[in-house]
């Protein structure tokens, strides 16, 4: 099995013969997700919570160049890093962080598609498309890095299922574990313990 190949191409000869991502089911799933997420963004853009205030404050410190002030032993930095990038592009703070979460949700849906690489095309489409409402909900209803962590863990699971042990695959797995740590610190011990158990089994 080669999950990475299946993320780009299709198991269906008909779809493969078309040679275009336009007709690929994942393309339409992501378009539907984007339309729903952006359509609801205006209703949720001013939602704020205590954790969200902290992440936005850290992002603003990165934007101002206050690196030492931004480093924090409690709040994981990944969501603030990504928000700071969009802030540098001129987006308002609360819109920027919501877009970060929406984009991470889209990446999560791509991970679900890849994770189900051995399943029939129709099953992958139903499972991935069915995850759209819940993904949009968690991207917009509250500011938290939980969706970022879920995104990393979905791709981590896809990497494990793929089962490759070459250098490139190992680097990719290490990158995912590190990314999970920066999204939320508990992801590092979780992945390490889980990986050890997976290899033993």
Low-confidence stretches: 1-5, 8-18
Indicate the structural class. Answer: mainly alpha
Overall geometry = globular
Order of helices and strands: HHHHHHHHHHHH
Got a strand count?
Answer: 0
Number of helices: 12
Oligomer: single chain
Helix content: over 70%
Strand content: under 5%
Overall pLDDT confidence: 87
CA radius of gyration is: 18 Å
Q: How far is the first residue's CA from the last residue's CA?
A: 19 Å
What's the story with the biggest beta sheet?
none
Give me the secondary-structure topology.
Blueprint: H1 3-8, H2 13-18, H3 25-44, H4 50-64, H5 67-70, H6 78-88, H7 93-115, H8 121-130, H9 132-140, H10 146-162, H11 167-183, H12 187-200
Helix pairs in contact: 3-7, 3-8, 3-9, 4-6, 6-7, 7-8, 7-9, 7-10, 10-11, 10-12, 11-12
Mind explaining what this structure looks like?
The structure is a single chain. This protein is 76% helix and 0% strand. By secondary structure, it is mostly helical. The protein is globular, with a radius of gyration of 18 Å. The model is unreliable at 1-5 and 8-18 (pLDDT under 50).
Summary keywords:
201 residues; mainly alpha; 76% helix
What's this, in brief?
The protein is mainly α. It has helices at 3-8, 13-18, 25-44, 50-64, 67-70, 78-88, 93-115, 121-130, 132-140, 146-162, 167-183, 187-200. The protein is built from 12 helices and no strands.
């Amino acid at each position: 099995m080669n999950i990475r190949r299946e993320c780009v191409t299709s198991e269906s000869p008909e779809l493969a013969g078309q040679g275009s991502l336009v007709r690929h089911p994942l393309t339409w799933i992501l378009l539907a997700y984007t339309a729903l997420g952006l359509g609801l963004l205006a209703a949720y853009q001013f939602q704020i919570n205590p954790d969200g205030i902290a992440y936005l404050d850290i992002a603003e410190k990165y934007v101002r160049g206050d690196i030492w002030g931004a480093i924090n032993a409690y709040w994981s930095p990944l969501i603030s890093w990504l928000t700071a990038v969009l802030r540098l592009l001129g987006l308002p703070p609360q819109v920027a962080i919501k877009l970060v979460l929406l984009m991470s949700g889209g990446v999560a849906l791509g991970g679900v598609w890849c994770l189900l690489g051995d399943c029939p095309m129709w099953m992958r489409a139903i499972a991935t498309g069915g995850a759209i409402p819940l993904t949009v909900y968690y991207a917009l209803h509250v500011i938290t890095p939980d969706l970022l962590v879920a995104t990393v863990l979905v791709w981590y699971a896809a990497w494990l299922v793929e089962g490759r042990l070459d250098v490139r695959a190992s680097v990719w797995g290490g990158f995912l574990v590190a990314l999970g740590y920066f999204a939320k610190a508990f992801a590092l011990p979780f992945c390490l313990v889980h990986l050890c158990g997976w290899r033993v089994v």
